[in-house]
Design a protein that fits this description.
The protein is an alpha/beta fold. It contains eleven helices and eight strands. α2 packs parallel to α8. It starts with 5 loop residues before the first helix and ends in a 16-residue tail after the last helix.
Length: about 325
């Protein structure tokens, strides 16, 4: 049972804690206007990214959405460069030009996130096609939300990936809402796995956000993909605790109830893992992460804004 593996529990906890505390600090700083980018926080959804990314190998790559902080950090993205990007500084991962919605760290296999719903899905499939053409055994993971499953690009990408047996794992982080629109107001049935299955790939739904189930399923499908058996689809039901964009909650808007979120807070994977940890060394681990986060924000504060000449740089592949 992997739930009895202390090393794995510690890895999961460290990654979840690092993401949670980073985003809580972003939420704290955001009202000061020192962060120059809108932020779509992953608070509450971290287990999806951590469970999947912990199952990957260093040469595997990920593509994500505008709510991509958790994916970026779970895959090993540079925290200092991430925070500097939110501040719009030249030391940011996109040289201060992209902000929160455009995270990239190619060195660690993070190929980019996008502000436009669904756009990285076909790009990830194209990348997977290139890997297969070159005979590589890396896996591409395409993260997206339930709203992206209504885009035409989603269907085109899944169909092509299945046809060409491409090495891509599609991961839908289903928090039930596209901004303020519940998924059953946008589609007839709760049938994302059924949709994926019609394109000829195995699909699975994990409903309780259990990080161990996510890790095991992602690992299982990655092994299948590496054997050349084609793509797979993993739907992870989750919950965002904060508003669609910004640091606050949004229950006053009336599109969802506070109790819909409170049940997820009560069963928070971070709290669960903390109870499972051997307490020896836990305080030290958390202190080291807090120090890393402070260093990252200090780095962003002290970095320079891009020069005007940057407006004409990195627009096209030279």
């Amino acid at each position: 049972m992997i739930e009895n593996n202390p090393e794995l529990i510690e890895r999961f906890y460290k990654s979840l804690y690092r993401i949670r505390r980073t985003e809580e600090e972003i939420a704290r700083i955001y009202p000061t206007d020192r962060i120059k980018s809108p932020v779509h926080l992953s608070i509450g959804q971290e287990a999806a990214s951590v469970g999947v990314c912990e199952a990957l190998q260093p040469d595997d790559v990920v593509f994500g959405t505008y709510r991509g902080h958790a994916m970026y950090l779970a895959k090993g993205g540079d925290l200092k460069k991430m925070i500097a990007e939110l501040y719009g500084k030249i030391t940011g991962c996109a040289r201060g030009k992209g902000g929160s919605m455009h995270m990239i760290d190619i060195e660690h296999g993070i190929m980019g996130t996008s502000a436009i719903v669904g756009t990285t899905i076909p790009i990830s499939v194209g990348y997977a096609y290139g890997l297969k053409y070159r005979g590589r055994d890396s896996v591409v993971v395409s993260f997206f939300g339930d709203g992206a499953a209504d885009e035409g690009a989603f269907h085109e990408a899944l169909s092509f990936a299945a046809l060409k047996r491409l090495p891509v794992l599609f991961v839908c982080e289903n928090n039930y809402y596209a901004i303020h629109s519940h998924h059953l107001e946008r589609r007839h049935s709760d049938n994302l796995c059924e949709r994926a299955g019609t394109y000829g790939m195995p699909s699975e739904r994990i409903e309780d956000g259990d990080i161990f189930k996510i890790y095991e399923s992602a690992g299982k499908y990655c092994e299948r993909i590496r054997r050349g058996e084609g793509p797979a689809f993993l739907e992870i039901v989750t919950c965002r605790w904060r508003e669609h964009v910004g640091p606050n909650d949004d229950f006053h808007l009336g599109y969802r109830k506070k109790e819909d979120v409170e049940c997820w807070m009560e069963n928070d994977e971070l709290k669960r893992l903390r109870r499972m940890l051997n307490l020896n060394g836990q305080d030290r681990m958390e202190a080291e992460i807090e120090d890393e986060i402070r260093t990252a924000f200090d780095f962003a504060e002290s970095s320079l804004f891009p020069d005007k000449s940057e407006l004409h740089e990195h627009l096209f592949k030279e």
